[in-house]
Amino acid sequence: MRSVALLVLLVISLPALAQIGGISAYEFLNLPNSATVAAMGGHHMAHMDDDLTLAARNPSLLNEAMDSRIVLSHAFLPAGINNSYLAYARHREDLRTTFQAGLQYVGYGNDLIRRDPTGQDLGTFSAADFALTVGAARQIEERLSVGANLKIIASQLAGYGSLGLGLDAGVHYRDTSGRFQISLLARNFGRQLSHYSGTSGREPMPFELQLGITRELRYLPFRFSVIYRYLDRWNVLYDDPTVEDNFTLQLIGEEQTGGRGAGAVFLDNFARHFVINGELLIGKHRNLRVRAGYNHGLRRELRLSDFRSGAGYSFGVEWQTRRFRIAYGRGTYHLAGGVNQLGVGVEI
Questions:
Q1: pLDDT tens digit sequence for 246-294
Q2: Exposed, middle or buried by CB within 10 Å (0-12, 13-18, 19+), for 198?
Q3: 98 pLDDT higher than 90
Q4: Cα–Cα dist 20/75, whole Å
Q5: What does the alpha-carbon distance between residue 156 and residue 75 come to, in Å, rounded to a whole number?
Q6: pLDDT classification of 300: cutoffs 50, 70, 90
Q7: What's the pLDDT at 245?
Q8: CA atoms within a 13 Å half-sphere pointing along the CA-CB vector of 65
Q9: DSSP 3-state of 140
Q10: How far apart are CA 255 and CA 244, in angstroms?
């Protein structure tokens, strides 16, 4: 239990300086790394099974069921942008530890047009981000596990480069039935080792503290997760002074809209912390899984004041056998469409 106490102390003592989108470096680390995560609202970190892609989000989910598994995922983003993830896991029984190695790559294109302030074409340039991850997890009690990921981050934007070091640390608990699970996770703690040329000072990391629970129903093959983001930061609102804003919360049925009074602001901010998702397990061996998720923070950030859209909603499906799985996830971000993500996993 001493190691658990030390890890929990590390997590809760991290600086309470969480950054929301747009004000930190390496935001690509928050992109869904798999079809599973994409289908579950963009965040899924409290369920432990043999899905290796989940360990990239929460290293404490690494377990011996992931031994000798390799996974590959690719997201089809607009404008030819690529977001790919590759990982492999190995369990060492003598150490009672499961290890993983993974690589995330985001390519923005090699033919981006460079222009001067007057719009003059100055040729083309490329841009890409990389994150190499190595992680390990160990079950220290019958129902408790701890894990950590170390990430070497590199970013190259039009000849300007940056290097960073990140750390994820998590604690996961599962009850004896396996139907209730809970995780505490600190993501992207670290620092920028070298900043982009031409800029002054280091930029903050996209640090985030999350708490998630997963519950499987006793008499129905369905499980749901509730994730609370930014445990270390209460205010995650951004108020655009040019937009007349009304609070809108839609989970099921008609939208409920109110003015921007103190109560509406409180509820809007509170709801933005949550990601809710569910998974229906079909078949005798649960081979077919149908998924859906709702991210209220994403919906509010990507909303259009004059049109309704499916921003914040996601869905997906997975088919798996004992040694092979294929998954599809789709997240909606704009009226123009969403992002499709495919993933495959095999045991070698």
A1: 555 554 444 555 456 788 889 999 999 999 999 999 999 999 999 999 9
A2: exposed
A3: yes
A4: 22
A5: 20
A6: confident
A7: 53
A8: 10
A9: coil
A10: 17
Residues 197-205: contacts with CB under 8 Å, at least 24 apart: 197/159, 197/160, 197/161, 198/160, 203/24, 203/25, 204/17, 204/19, 204/23, 204/24, 204/25, 205/19, 205/24, 205/25, 205/26, 205/164, 205/166
Question: What are the DSSP calls for 47-109, one per residue?
Answer: --SS-GGGGGT-GGG--GGGTTEEEEEEEE-GGG-EEEEEEEEEEETTTTEEEEEEEEEEEEE
Tokens of 100: 């993983």
Specify the residue for token string 């190995």. Answer: 90
**Annotated domain spans of the chain:** 2-232
Q: Is 232 exposed, middle or buried (0-12, 13-18, 19+ CB in 10 A)?
A: middle
Q: Is the pLDDT confidence value at 6 over 50?
A: no
Q: What is the per-residue pLDDT for 142?
A: 84
DSSP, collapsed to helix, strand or coil, labels residue 17 as coil
> CA torsion angle for 296, 312, 35, 176 (degrees, to 10)?
30
CA distance readout (Å), 141 to 1, 14, 44, 96: 8, 25, 23, 11
Unique residue bearing structure tokens 């809108």: 248
Q: How far apart are the C-alpha atoms of 26 and 162, rounded to whole Å?
A: 9
Containing H/E element for 188?
strand 180-194
Q: What CA–CA distance (Å, rounded) separates 248 from 311?
A: 13
Distance between CA 202 and CA 27 in Å, rounded? 15
Sign of CA dihedral 23, 26, 32, 37: negative
Q: Which amino acid is at 63?
A: N
